[in-house]
Protein: Probable sugar-binding periplasmic protein
Organism: Larsenimonas rhizosphaerae
Amino acid sequence: MITTRLAVPLLASLLPLTLGLPVQAAETPDKGEVEVLNWWTSGGEARALGVLKSDLADQGIGWKNMPVAGGAGTNAMAVLRSRVTSGNPPTAAQVLGFDARDWAERGGLSYLDKVAQDMKWGDIFPQPLQDFAKYKGHWIGAPFEIHSTNWVWANKALMDKLGIEQPTTWTDFLASMKKARDAGYTGLAYGGQPWQDATVFENVMLATGGPDFYRKAFIDLDDATLRSDTMIKAFNNFRELLAYRDPNSSGRDWNLATAMVINDKALYQIMGDWAKGEFINANLAPYKDYLCFRTPGTQQAVTFNSDLMIMFKTDDTQQQALQDTMARAIASPGFQIAFSNNKGSVPARMDLPADELDACAQKGYEQVQAAAKNNTLMGSMAHGYAAQAAVKNAVFDIVSAFVNSSMPGDVAAEQMAMAIQDAK
Ligand code: BGC
């Protein structure tokens, strides 16, 4: 995949030479250029990012992409830190909740207050998201969307072929994967990387203990809950689920796991709704080619994350203006719909017509709105909205160690509780 991506620009830059044409320096558009650091490198992600790029191009603004591959931004933050430390920050960067807070604490971010006030951001974004997009009363990030992690993506043709109904309980969920496995398919398309292990595990936790348990364990970081029998049960349930992976899951990128569902190799993937971006990119339609449903047992809550565009302080007045333009573009109604229709997410704004979204997103948008009202819209641990990076990384370490060994559930629960105590 990396080779194909690199091959295009390389080829483009070599073409004039091989054809003997004069090589022209790229022109910077009159209105300037923005440099944007992000980790949107899969087919669906790049397509969604293209919506912003062309939106800005329509306004005469150039685009310098700075992609850092690595799902959930695992590599992006280190690259961003080194850019900022060397005094050369990009115009803007994609970050997740607690990381946004971290950057704000260090100082050095542009405030987006003027745009936020004009557009009434305080009225349109849900409170659990505002808690991160604002810092000490100032708006520090423009929210692209709301993603949620408690989704299952299912191959409809396989379900039909094997006579599988959409499962609503954990027991039926496992039974359906067994059916697929018995018929020679992979039950669960799985990417064995720490952030993906943790993404699936937070689903299992929510399914095992419900929203209050999830909140107490992962948001309040309550030691007794982390060590509880329910947490041990969650690890044991996770062990059972892991039996439906294929043997080659170790290190697999998330979009390659999605491709297993798309290509009729696997029945399900448990993944955030960026996975839907891959189905969209493959021209597949919800309910016709694939199903989307909340992970059985998690229907009463939504574990969310949202990509925030933060901007770095600059003395350059042209860049300042471009930052405002970009913030305004991201929060605008048309962009919020168009972006989500490519990314797989739902709009971060809560005031948009749902009928412009596909069937999965309509359902998702409604569930996010209901969860925001019922206090069950809870931050995802794996995607930076439940706890600070040190705690998140501690969770990644233990959950991955569990996945890659035969560690018993009670040992994993105790180790995770200890690691979280040390990290917080
Ligand atoms: C981001 C998504 C991204 C996914 C996979 C998440 O943390 O919020 O935008 O598509 O990671 O990289």
